[in-house]
Amino acid sequence: MALLSFLLYVFVTAFTPGPNNIMAMLVANKYGLKKTIRFSLGVGSGFFVLILLCAYFGLLLKSFIPKVEFIMTILGVIYMLYLAIKIITSKNDGNHNDGDKNNSFLTGMLLQFINPKGILYGITTISTYVLPYHTSNVSLIFYSFFLAFVGFLGTYSWGVFGSIFRKFLSKYNTQFNLVMALLLMFSAISILLESR
């Protein structure tokens, strides 16, 4: 496994803006840190279940269709490059208005099953970095827990440092997006080189 590429991809995806992180920042601004903890724990729990589902679905595909591994790798790389382009071209306008009911554990958990970034992240990470090297139940549970924990940390850090990140992103949005996009591109190229 390309450990550096894996960790870069996990870090960039977990800590860049997305539905979970923006929601956590909003929850912290509206309701305080206590509500952010509940929301972030919900995100982590839902993400753990989502990653496990992605892992076993990917394993099922790999066992029945061995050639799907290369296709899944290519799709993962394409998605990572797409994310990099989206990050470079994104604008931070600060207009994220959500209702007052976005502060519970259940909301955070259920958000994972309608969050396209989370679903694609789970499929990409598991199919590209985990399944080619690890297929035991213990490994799949370990990686699912690890990815959910990093996701929780990313979400919670956006809640805790929401105001700092918002000021930073509004001031240095272009530079931050460029660095994150370049890290994603590096991860994608590393995957392609290793899959040969």
Overview of the structural elements:
The protein is mainly alpha-helical and 196 residues long. The chain has one domain (3-194). Helix content is 81%, strand content 0%. It is globular, with a radius of gyration of 17 Å.
Distance between the termini: 13 Å
Tally of DSSP helical segments:
8
> What is the number of beta strands?
0
The chain-level structural class is mainly alpha
Radius of gyration based on Cα positions: 17 Å
Helix fraction by DSSP (H/I, runs of at least 4): over 70%
Beta-sheet strand percentage?
under 5%
What's the structural domain tally? 1
**Overall morphology:** globular
H/E element sequence: HHHHHHHH
Average pLDDT level: 79
Can you summarize the main beta sheet? none
Poorly predicted segments? 94-100
